[in-house]
Amino acid sequence: MAQEPPAGRRRSPGFTAVLTLIGLFLLYLAVPSVGPAVRAARADGIPGTFTATRLDCVEHPGHEACTWSGDFRSDDGTVLRAGVALYGADRDYLRTGQRTRAVDVGRPSRVYGPGGSMEWVFTALLLLAGLGLLAFLYVRPLLRLAAARPRASAPVSGPHPGAEARSR
């Protein structure tokens, strides 16, 4: 766990501002992806068929990353999407013209296999990193501020001043 700076030292306001912006940016990236990532993990969406039309590969030092693009058609024929990628399909997974089961979870540029995906892991890590960074910066100071606040005193029970005079 991170330690608070010694009593005489405080964090630079600029440092705090930069870390706050980084934390907020991580949340900006993660929060909109939570719903689609969970739906993709569960393969919760519109079932249909993906037809492979094009294989795009990029070579990196030590490995190759390939993506199949093609057309998605829902089982009931109401959803037709052209030019979408099938998440997780590498070079050997399909051939041009081949069809496979897929699920449309609402992502604009891709569909998923019926087994779902592990995208939620990266989304969860981004979310935790953003929240952790903001907690590191603000939880302790807020707790210290709350502890230093004077508490409202409880009402004193018993007779009120002047109560004796009124009762006579």
TrEMBL record:
Keywords: Membrane, Transmembrane, Transmembrane helix. This is DUF3592 domain-containing protein. It comes from the Bacteria. The chain crosses the membrane at residues 12-31, 120-139. The keyword Membrane applies.
